[in-house]
Amino acid sequence: MSRLSLRRLRQDRAIRELTKQVRLSHEQMIQPYFLVEGISEKQPIEGLSGVFRETPDSLNKQVESDLEAGVHKILLFGVPKEKSHDQFSYEHLALQIQQLRQRFGNDLWIATDVCLCSATTSGHCGVFDATQNHLNNEVTVAALAKQALVYAQAGANCVAPSDMMDGRVRVIRKVLDEHSLEHTIIMSYSAKFHSSFYGPFRNAADSAPKSTTLKDRSTYQIDPTRPNDALACAIRDQNEGADILMVKPGLPYLDIVSYLHREIPTIPIAVYQVSGEYAAIDLLSERGLINRSKAHVEAWTAFVRAGASILITYGARHAKNWLREL
Ligand code: PBG
């Protein structure tokens, strides 16, 4: 009689391959890019090796080489030169979207982040109300809807609001539909937490809060102690017309991925492996303490295991190679 052994199914590569419960593919990854207005050369971003603040030209080149590496889905962040309290222009990124579309056609699926934090003087994700202690929801949502419309008209396949104002998905959907853009997908940063892991991003996107009255984003991003708030936001966004829900950051919020996956099984979930958690792995590997590619693949595996089908990661351009190496 053979003894029960749980090691039997771990004994060689073949049986491990046959018994995997989750499988990853570079096809489920989205690569983020920063287009920065007013710089003459691309600039490195501290903590994110191989990721740059791009000029229009350098971004085109980067996308071209990434396509060869198997990246066909991208997420664009526009960083305008002029900051303002309430007047914003979205043309710089819109022009880039048009160029990418002309150059690469439908080979490229383009999502654009929709938020004001790179455009406001305060570094906050919206426009202040008269008290200067809060963001004005209505005015901010109107500006976001305009931004989403400009990007969709320029040719974006998907708009991704990351501001955390109330009701923005409904207004964006309405404005898009009124302009015959009913094919444009809305990927809502629904479960976006008030996190310390956005550090490297804020340097890249000029978006650290600089206001003296409102020092951080705790009045609009979700408190880390409140999973139920994340669920409420996710249900609300789905009802308002979101096609994809996002959880952000990733690793510290895996419970939220699995919670939303269980409670709302009818909608795809994306996870954003944000700048700080991505950099943490890179910095450990630079110190020789862990293996970079294996650690990233392990984190990505956790996202898929928890229920995500879409991964937004600065390492998307390495995914095809790293997954093959395993
Ligand atoms: C903008 C936005 C942020 C990120 C994506 N969109 C930063 C923030 O909310 O401060 C973070 C992404 C990352 O850290 O990689 N609102």
Please provide a written account of the structure.
The protein has helices at residues 13-18, 56-68, 91-104, 137-154, 168-178, 199-204, 227-240, 254-263, 275-286, 292-306, 316-325, and strands at residues 29-36, 43-45, 48-54, 73-79, 109-114, 158-161, 185-192, 244-248, 269-273, 310-313. The chain is of the alpha/beta class and 326 residues long. An 8-stranded parallel β-barrel has the order 1-4-5-6-7-8-9-10, surrounded by 8 helices. Helix 7 (227-240) crosses helix 8 (254-263). The chain is globular. The model has no long low-confidence stretch (mean pLDDT 96). The structure holds ligand PBG. Ligand PBG binds next to helix 6.
Provide the list of bound ligands, each named once.
ligand PBG
Annotation, overall tally of beta strands: 10
Label the structural class: alpha/beta
The outline comes out as globular
* Poorly predicted spans: none
Helix coverage percent of residues?
A: 25-40%
**Total count of helical runs of at least 4 residues:** 11
- What is the distance, rounded to the nearest whole angstrom, between the alpha carbons of the first and last residues? 35 Å
Instruction: State the major sheet.
Output: 8 strands, parallel, barrel
Secondary-structure element series: HEEEHEHEHEHEHHEHEHHEH
* Average residue-wise pLDDT: 96
From the alpha carbons, calculate the radius of gyration and give it in angstroms.
20 Å
Strand content: 15-25%
